[in-house]
Amino acid sequence: MSSTLSHSKTHPPRARFFSVPSLETIAAWLLALIWIFPLLYAFWAAFHPSEFMVSFTLFAPLTLENFADAWGQAPFARYYLNTFMLVTTVVLAQFIVCTLAAFAFARFPIPGKNVLFMLVLIQLFVFPEVLIVENYRIASELGLINTITGIGLPYVASAFGIFLLRQTFKTIPRELEDAARIEGCNWLEILWKVYVPLAKPTYLAYGLVSISHHWNNFLWPLVVTNSVESRPLTVGLGVFSAPETGVNWATVSAATLLSIAPLLIAFLLFQRQFVQSFLRAGIR
Amino acid sequence: MRARIPFALTALTAGLLSAGQAAANDPTVLTMYYPVAVGGTLTDVVDDLVEEFESEHPDIDVEAIYAGNYDDTRVRAMSAIAAGDTPQLSVLFSIDLYELIEQNAIVAFDDLVETDEEREWLDSFYPGLMENGQLDGKTYGIPFQRSTIVLFWNKDAFEAAGLDPETPPENWQQMADMAATVREASNGEQWGVMVPSTGYPYWMFQAFAFQNGHRLMSDDGTEVYFNDPAAIEALEYWVSLATEHEAMPSGTIEWGTLRQNFLEQSTAMMWHTTGNLTAVRSDAAFDFGVAMLPMSTQRGSPTGGGNFYIFEDTTEEEQRAAMTFIRWMTAPERAAAWSIETGYMGVSPAAYETDALQRYVEEFPPAAVARDQLEHGTAELSTYQGGRIRRALDNAVQAALTGQLSPEEALNQAQQEADSVLRRYAR
């Protein structure tokens, strides 16, 4: 702030009216536009008849037919339910597992803790698609093929979650823990009453990342499921892609909007909280 | 407690035994993964077919599982095999043959057929469609959802440009001239021709090369011939459509939006798969025709699409049941219905002799073009390490079309890359 103030003082007053946006602002706008463009196009395409897709007549007649088409071609209601159940179970399970693991890594005096932690972090370097065959074998042995548990299980012990929570727990002053101990709390109570409440922004930020990732995940759910009863939205959406003949953009856009709508609306509603929690949870 | 354990064990054994006996009377259960490569509700069509089959064959249960596009389906089948849940059969990309053989995943149909009737069935398909499913004289893949490339032309646009709307181009020279005429007559509003160069550039390039009398690979999938003079000439012609004749947009042309471009009349001709036939027919607001691709020295188009495969590691009884199912699915009436529904080809001459397909062809002659062109068909580019080989060729084609490399340089580079990949497969 102070630098911009002193900057404007050295120039004649007129310069204030011509304040050229800084390079960063321009770059941010540019990136934002590039990012939002596909979404805007999907919006536009979903509400117009398919004849206008390539010519892009901005004021082509509006229609809701694409949504009716898309809705008719796949059991979206069931897919919504499946995706919702998948995302909730995965995120809850991740919170539990990652909290316990992160607490152990942050506070317990375990011999070789750092080596173990490095081993966990290695997971971040492994591209999940590489593990499909092996994960499928395990899921099959556990009898979890074609179940929502089967889709979620490989993601429960998330290295990213453990890492993020461990970093947050480490920043929490030991004094608080000591105070709680003097009050007679055991470690579980300390974790629940001291650490978890203080790490709320991290949970929110991590939860958001995790929800959007699992909401959008495609290949593994496709591979591990067989039927409508367990398939999430993204896999249902796959029916609309037609690699051999080219896609009907209008229907695909409508179907895409249908499947991202809940997430999008949630983001718009809670935008402020999300952004703040990301700022607070910044890795230190 | 001690006495009870043997009792529990005996009970368990008895249970297992009775379960085994029950299984003998139960229907044979088959699992099949299949991809959907053309849009829409094909999954429903497949489900209906399976249901009909089951009612005719109460002793066989088929679980048909939609598994995404061709690549996803291959991943799915391979994962299941690695996990020991081997499916009995699947529809996979016809060009996956070498990979499946390399993994010892599939069985040859020649080893499964027993009766003369079955042998006859195995010989009943168009030879052009069998090429991709055969290796060393054995048949591993049965054609199911198969296509070729055809030329779609807009008759209204031809008329507006002063061309005969009923005459499609016969050869390369004519196509370039006609396309340039359309471009000029429309004052640059409309392109003359579009050949897609994303998605499956190698497939389109194969057509050009074959029309120029050249096959890009050996029969056993261990060698490719990308930088042969005939291939270079083919790529030069493709590039010249944009640079010299100015009848095609320069740069790459998007596979996925080409049909829309044609429907919106931004191009008068397009090369595309027969799988688009039904969609173009229902959406075109103008008169259009479908023709065989133009020739240089000969007609030609590669085939494409998916084959049925039967997997290793399943019981003989299951394999026989799988074959019964495949025979049923490829029987002339079903092949005809499938072709009408999707635009894929009827896979056997007998399919085109059924009443349903004959009536359809009469009412909609373009449906027969793909069949007539089959006689000039060639196998789709399929080799060991197919993915890498196709990528090399795709890159070369795109580099030439975008002007980064000359056709000769691009193909030389692709050849080098392919040679180094295929070296260890040399026979």
Automatic annotation (TrEMBL), chain A:
PROSITE patterns xrefs: ABC_TM1
Key words of the record: Cell membrane, Membrane, Transmembrane, Transmembrane helix, Transport
GO CC annotations on file: plasma membrane
Intracellular or extracellular location(s): Cell membrane
Annotated ABC transmembrane type-1 domain residues: 80-270
Keyword Transmembrane: yes
Keyword set includes Transmembrane helix: yes
Species name: Vreelandella andesensis
Biological classification of the source: Bacteria, Pseudomonadati, Pseudomonadota, Gammaproteobacteria, Oceanospirillales
Protein name per its UniProtKB record: Carbohydrate ABC transporter permease
Stated family: Belongs to the binding-protein-dependent transport system permease family.
GO BP terms: transmembrane transport
A Pfam family reported for this protein in Swiss-Prot or TrEMBL: BPD_transp_1
UniProtKB/TrEMBL annotation, chain B:
Cellular localization per UniProt: Periplasm
Pfam family, one: SBP_bac_8
Keyword Signal among record annotations: yes
Leader sequence segment: 1-24
Record keyword Magnesium present: no
Superkingdom of the source species: Bacteria
GO CC annotation terms, alphabetical: periplasmic space
Keyword annotations: Signal
InterPro entries named in the record: Bact_solute-bd_prot1, SBP
Family listed: Belongs to the bacterial solute-binding protein 1 family.
Protein name: ABC transporter substrate-binding protein
Origin species: Vreelandella andesensis
